[in-house]
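Incident review: delayed structure delivery

Summary: a single-chain prediction request sat in the queue longer than the usual turnaround. Root cause was a stuck worker, restarted by the on-call engineer. No data loss occurred. The affected request and its eventual output are reproduced below so the record is complete for anyone auditing the incident later.

Affected input:
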Amino acid sequence: MSAPVLLTSGDPSGIGPEIAAKAWAAGERFVWIGDPRHLPPGTPWRAVGEGEPAGDGALAVLTHDFAAPASPGQPDPANAAGVVAVIARAVRLVEAGLGAAVCTAPINKKALKDGAGFAFPGHTEYLAHLAGGAEVVMMLACPGLRVVPATIHIPLSEVPVRLTPALLEATIRITHAALVRDFGLDRPRLAVAGLNPHAGEGGAMGREEIDWMAPLVARLAAEGLAIRGPLPADTMFHAAARQGYDAAICAYHDQALIPIKTIDFAGGVNVTLGLPFVRTSPDHGTAYDIAGRGIADASSLIAALRMAASLSAARGR
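Output delivered after worker restart:
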């Protein structure tokens, strides 16, 4: 019997436990790693062992004790170490063949830093660390669009300095390899967004596109990659334009996330490319403001669980 997708608890004071219970009730099958005390009251659950399949019936839980109960909307520093440990445990199990993929529920970086000295900007960087320093990139995906930001959680003023030819090339190559290996595309088509408005407009609004982005894209195309750009970002994301590529490589965070969240706010999935295991996550945060109210939308988590299973199956093939 195949190994299950492992869903981490995330911040137990956020909506993670609630949407896990909703996803299970909607028919998704996975193993949730966390403290059963943090599940919504009345959630039917049953304990399973490491490597045991999810099965049917009550929610399958691989129990992991946390230091304290959880109060919705109020992160407890005492639980920070448990949140981090669950992520590490899920990775260890998948690497040991006892899980098919890791799907992570939302965390709050400040809460982890305050409570456990978490030294990473987010999930992606911590997972890369657990994988031995793997070079990774973040993809956001929905049925109508895949986007990869070359720079992520940095001030906009730092983007022109941090976006180097080496970084952009590595991002492109990691994305290309993942589209072949995990998404089953024999020759993925890539579109590269310019850094400046109108992709620099011939140098009138910036020279990065002329000086190094276009030559880089041309060199990769000469190697055989199906790639074009740099393209004006303001005309890359309408429906007709999206038909021309399988993934868009963007210069910075909002250039990538605004279009995908506009197209499919509830169904976007965060995928970490470049890891030796599959990792997905819903494309939203802890939502402390609605935690515990029973109104959280599980659509993005359901999409993330399904994508985790699909990508894992593709790697298996």
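Verification: The chain has two domains: 1-136+274-317, 144-263.
Action items: add queue-age alerting; document worker restart procedure.
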